[in-house]
Design goal:
This is DUF3187 family protein. Keywords: Signal. By secondary structure, the protein is mostly beta strands. It has one domain: Porin, CATH 2.40.160.10. The protein contains 3 helices and 19 strands. A 16-stranded antiparallel β-barrel has the order 1-2-3-4-5-6-7-8-9-10-11-13-14-17-18-19. A two-stranded antiparallel ribbon has the order 15-16. A hairpin with an 8-residue loop joins β7 and β8. The radius of gyration is 22 Å and the shape is globular. The C terminus is likely disordered.
Amino acid sequence: MKALRVAVAAVAAWLWLVPDAAGQQFLWNADFDFRFDNREYDVMATARSETIFGVRLTPEVGLGWGRGNAVMVGLDLFSDFGTTTDISRQMIVYYRYRDDRFDVHFGRFPRRHLMGDYEKAFFSDWIDFYDSNIDGLMANWRGRHGYVELAFDWNGKIGAGQREKFMIFSSGRLNYGAFYGGYNANMYHYSCSLEEPGVVDNILIYPFAGADFRTVLPAFSKLFLQVGWLQSFQRDRLYVGRFVNPGGMQIELGIERWGFGIDNTLYLGSGLMPYYDSVVEGQPAYGAELYPGELFYRTTAGVYNRLEIYWRHCFPSGVAFKVASVHHYDGHGWGWQQRIELQVPLSDKMFRKHPRPKDETARPAADRPRAKAARRAE
């Protein structure tokens, strides 16, 4: 909290001492994120039962100047219910540039600023909530018919009991009338610690194509069919020495009207996490640390299906609420997930009498990634 108070004082002093410097502005935002996620997976072979229940608040302040420049500093405050009364804190600090087409970030910034729509084989719900910040940089370009994004996240510095880890990931989409194509890609470098040798390369790509039927049925807020191929290239340099290449087809269908929706994802192929159960000297070697995606994709039965039935509503105040029932099948059994989410995005622009010119900085809308990407790409 001391660092945040110092940052606020520094920004206020700058604005008072240099009132006309390049049209600078005092910027602030605060995002509130509440999640209840109960998981009942006892009969499944790929995941375990647990409950994720917590709340996050991320206040930020900063200085904006010129046409889209800003430096922001803040805190990521997180409380994991049922574990401790303490609140975990992580500093956020980054430079950003944003205009009508480009968005660039350098520093530690919230994961929600990503534009790309990444499949759950790439980033799980657990990663989205517990690893909510990117340490590195991100750049994206958006045009009339699509977008492309590239990001670098350094999430592990070598040390005692700490492996060196980083990932480079990207997403893109191109729209052509009712049809579209795109990709997700991720290269995860999972290296050694001071005690443990070895490096694992974990590469995953997902080219896809689909159709958005809202062009012919505009009454629906979502109506699409998408088909793609998940392909992995993995190599344990020390213990295996060669690449293994699991992969498979993925089919997705989504429909929504009046806030009620159904999303179904069907994966048909081999397990995408061949090193998950690796053992070295009698101890687990990698596990979930090597695989940031949903663990259902390590299925040994050649199939995984995810069915989500939900209702969501965005109130005029900007408050977004969602309740969902999610059903998983991994070829061995069914699992049930119940979710409640509430997000409240606040910012300085909500309380201004006059709107900011569109080429100045603005925070991304708080929305589902697929809907966000579709809106910006249209």
